[in-house]
Amino acid sequence: MAKSKAVPVFDGHNDTLLHLAIKSPGSEESFFSGRDGHIDLPKARAGGLAGGFFAMFAPTPGWTKEIRWRKTGPEGPQESAGWDVPLAAPVHQQKAINNVLAMMGALFRLERMSEGKLEVVRTVKELRSAMDRGVLAAVAHMEGAEALTKDLNGLEVLYQAGLRSLGIVWSRPNFFGHGVPFNFPDSPDIGPGLTDAGKDLVRACNEMGILVDLSHLNEKGFWDVASLSKAPLVATHSGAHALCPSPRNLTDDQLKAIGESGGMVGVNFGRGFLRKDGMADKRTTVREIARHVVHIVEKIGVDHVGLGSDFDGTQVPQDMKDVAGLPKLLDALQELGVKGKDLRKVAYRNWIRVLKATWKK
Ligand SMILES: [Zn+2]
Question: Is the predicted pLDDT of residue 70 greater than 70, yes or no?
């Protein structure tokens, strides 16, 4: 048995609802009986997953398999000098609304079907209580604000339903801002900042206590949020640009701003966002994830980093395999010196602190 088994993990991002509601609609039962993906309840329990952000995301139409593999690079080991990926097309509002309803519906269905084993949490009190009782704690997150319009009526409704975290964009433009493409290598400084509507969205999220997620946002948008937001800055599933120069990762200057705000980064497990060469190489191990954590610790301190797996939305290192492999990552972190109280901060405590400061309850 791995020695880190007893440390629970709270995770910044998964795409499990996309599979249960959109790719295999009506497959919620497989979450309990076991499914061929990264997260189901038996595997979550085996890996010590205590809870996490469950994303609601509208896929880009025409985002083909051929383009998709390029977003995390070839699997190697062939040589590559880099690649450009066309920016994903915008998604229509009605399609985004349908997707959010399907995925949020699936999340609440999971909660009901679980008979107390999974709870959608809306406050830190509820989150702590679920973790104490061994109940999987789910935070409802929307990845891309395409379902919303300028009046933000939808945000009011989604908040009342349980939405507590919002990524302004996925890697495509929308009414509120601009996302980064999956080029490699490249800077995140691509395109203009937030629109006026995007700035109003940040203010509304602050007022309501909804976390504003910086992952997928381009750099000018990032600095707009940094200057506007009164909440800690958070990127739920990104890595360190200094170690892997993908525009999806954060530069050391961005990390500094996150640290100074009291915020944090959830490190992404995607193989294509970890390595210096950007390849989704099959030989990539959990040690690469741990190296990103250590880099962020060195730059901004151990209070400002956690995990943001991207389970069910990316290719993770083969020795991780799925959520049941989380203890292997905790072991790798300990080997690199992140242990004891620091390991617990990275595994779940930082997330709880930042959610408390953001939600204000
Ligand atoms: Zn994402």
Answer: no
